[in-house]
Amino acid sequence: MPQKISSPSFFIGKGDDSLISFGSGQPDLPPPKGAYSILKHYKAFKYGLIQGEENLRSSLAREYPNAKPEHFVITNGASEALDLVLRVLSRPGGRILLPRPYYYSYPHNVLYAGMRPAYYDLDKNGKIDFEIFKKAVQGCRAVIINSPSNPTGTVQEIATLKKIERLCGTLGVYVISDEVYKDLIYVRKNYLIQGEKVVTVNSFSKTYAMCGFRVGYLYSKNIEVIEKVIEMKTHTSMNTSIVGQAMALEAMKSPRSYIAHHVKIWEERRDMIYGGMHDLGLELWKPEGAFYVLPKLKNPNRVVNDLYYKYKMIAYDGTWFGAPDRVRFSYALDISKIKEGLRRLKTFFGGEYKKY
């Protein structure tokens, strides 16, 4: 009997030519050429600064208003950045407010940090209802904001983000802003949440298609938080790969046209998968950024299992994201595979799904 799929870990790293993977949010587009051209002559294999190499932090500082290199810590992907910040902020009984649907690791990260997740639901358009947020945030240690969102693909309204910025500043609540998709927005430019207790988390994985290099970072003008993160990282992972950091620095030297070109590709794929699923009669939000769709489907775990074992397709159970009536599909794959995936989905909905 096939193993029942109960976690994203079942899929991560899997794939072959016969599989259509709408699973992991891993860009199939190439990193900038400069990112790997340095390897031919690279020889600096040594321990690096725990905070991250200063040349990379200096380059990042130029992308943020009035930022300095000391406001950044280079981490093993955005995942480590989020983990370190939560553990630094940890207080017994502390509550961290999460949007629902949420990225599947958020509740686990909060629990691993010794705190408790609290939730509020996004509205029918996948947006934050500020009045609901305002009530839910009372007494919380921190909130996590994810815009553009994984898994919804929605981008939060600037007016709402400004209200959250002001409210959390007044309440003394930390804002952890997960902006790993900030460069992949179709509708407007990114809005950077700012404040004394704001920590921005980002990565080179999505913007520069460098997932496996595991180079991320956190940015904050709160030096106390930065210093505590560095101290904790000293005793956990130590420095982030200096080879990866050197490659990330070269990637940042790419012209902005590199990112703009990729955004056009993502938008084209968005239109195809959204249109295809809409034609299949599915209810879903039209993505405004990132590269995910989250259609409503009954019995999502059975859908995920049947798609994998009977149709050789990977999709993620919405239950993992706090959306038990949905399934997440990533469109980080070639147009030809999206077309084939939609063809298989049509067959599935015309047959197997009718039995549910």
The number of distinct β-strands equals 12
Name of the CATH class of the largest domain: Alpha Beta
Helix content: 25-40%
Task: Determine the CATH superfamily of the largest domain.
Answer: Type I PLP-dependent aspartate aminotransferase-like (Major domain)
- Which fold name fills CATH's third level, the topology of the largest domain? Aspartate Aminotransferase, domain 2
What is the count of structural domains? 2
Strand order of the largest sheet: 2-8-7-6-5-3-4
The succession of helices and strands, N to C, reads EHHEHEHEHEHEEEHHHEHEEEH
Shape: globular
> Judging by the overall fold, what is the CATH architecture of the largest domain?
3-Layer(aba) Sandwich
- What is the radius of gyration? 20 Å
How many strands, what sense, and barrel or not for the largest sheet?
A: 7 strands, mixed
Question: Roughly how many Å apart are the termini?
Answer: 20 Å
What does this structure look like?
This protein has 356 residues and is α/β, with parallel strands linked by helices. The protein has two domains: 123 residues, Aspartate Aminotransferase, domain 1 (Alpha-Beta Complex), CATH 3.90.1150.10; 206 residues, 3-Layer(aba) Sandwich (Aspartate Aminotransferase, domain 2), CATH 3.40.640. It is built from eleven helices and twelve strands. The strands form three sheets. The chain has a seven-stranded mixed β-sheet, with helices on both faces. It has a three-stranded antiparallel β-sheet with strand order 9-12-11, with helices on one face. It has a two-stranded parallel sheet with strand order 1-10. The longest helix is centred in the C-terminal third of the chain and has 24 residues.
